[in-house]
Design a protein that fits this description.
The protein is α/β, with parallel strands linked by helices. The protein has a single domain, classed as 3-Layer(aba) Sandwich (Carbamate kinase), CATH 3.40.1160. It has ten helices and 16 strands. The strands form five sheets. It has an eight-stranded mixed β-sheet, sandwiched between helices. A two-stranded antiparallel sheet has the order 3-4. The chain has a two-stranded antiparallel sheet with strand order 6-9. It is globular, with a radius of gyration of 19 Å. The two termini are 34 Å apart. The relative contact order is 0.15.
């Protein structure tokens, strides 16, 4: 009986959040270990379906770097990176588009469907969703300038097609590709696409799933909440470094674009999304407006 009472208490704790977020849109960047491990994939799909059934509108933007690397290796195509960007020539772009817009995207759609949700897959190239330009040459640490190829930088996001799917009761699953001015596809960072889409849709939340607990201090302890001035200070001190810099920058850009709150959470934890948004304690780092007005 005590176990049943504890389960009821969990539902009661979640109730205020369910009521507050009913009808709101959450954009979720899905990637890393949460995509690689079977149990985490299943848990993610169930969580997204549960969100939809309690009245929240999840929009999924997925990555797929490890899967692209694996496919390139199988084809004997060398993978090169410059300052964290994948050097994307035409042949590599064919693989990127096939893996992101094809296999991974459709696998996620099928997984959500298997757990009772209704999902539709698309990419940033569909209906002019993401317009981008080719990334300028990248300056390396040695000072050399390198052309990263068909890597995109977002110019505009037109979310009408995504919004129409949401209004039809569907869960959009978006591959991070964009269209250049010549109509050719460009490879874009999934965090960046998620943040830009969240801003364009006026989302309540942007959730970035990572392979770390969140943003940690110099002693490795999780920081539960941060504002822009605090993030900038931690970046200057080198506490926020490496791959966490673009994630926090992406979160800040989303807040400037009208998103109420951003979350950086550990996708290696089962039910990470639910634990972050439906419990009082949460599990990751929330990025909030300086005045603390976000929900």
């Amino acid at each position: 009986m005590r176990e049943l009472i504890e389960k009821a208490a969990v539902l009661h704790e979640a109730l205020p959040y369910i009521r507050r977020f009913h009808g709101r849109t959450f954009v979720i960047k899905y990637g890393g270990s949460a995509m690689a491990e079977e149990s985490l994939r299943e848990g993610f799909a169930r969580d997204v379906v549960l969100m939809k059934f309690v009245g929240i509108n999840p929009v999924v933007v997925h990555g797929g770097g490890p899967q692209i690397d694996q496919h390139l290796k199988q084809l004997g195509i060398e993978t090169a990176r410059v300052e964290g960007l994948r050097v994307t020539d035409d042949r590599t772009m064919e693989v990127v588009q096939m893996v992101l817009g094809g296999r991974i995207n459709k696998d996620i759609v099928a997984l959500i469907g298997r757990h009772g949700g209704r999902a539709v897959g698309l990419s940033g190239m569909d209906d002019g969703l993401v317009w981008a330009e080719k990334q300028p040459e990248v300056k390396t640490r040695s000072g050399a300038m390198v052309d990263a190829g068909r890597v995109g930088r977002i110019l505009e996001v037109h979310p009408a097609v995504v919004q129409s799917l949401v209004e039809a009761g569907l869960i959009p699953v978006v591959a991070p590709l964009g269209a250049g001015s010549d109509g050719r596809s460009l490879n874009i960072n999934a965090d960046t696409v998620a943040g830009a889409l969240a801003s364009a849709m006026g989302a309540q939340k942007l959730i970035l799933m990572t392979d770390t607990p969140g943003v940690c201090d110099s002693d490795g302890a999780l920081i539960k909440s941060l504002t822009e001035p605090q993030i900038k200070q931690l970046q200057q001190e080198g506490v926020i470094d490496g791959g966490m810099i673009p994630k926090t920058d992406c979160a800040l850009q989303a807040l400037r674009g009208g998103v109420n709150k951003a979350h950086i959470i550990d996708g290696r934890e089962q039910h990470a999304i639910l634990l972050e948004i439906f419990t009082d304690a949460g599990i990751g780092t929330q990025i909030i407006h300086e005045d603390g007005t976000s929900a």
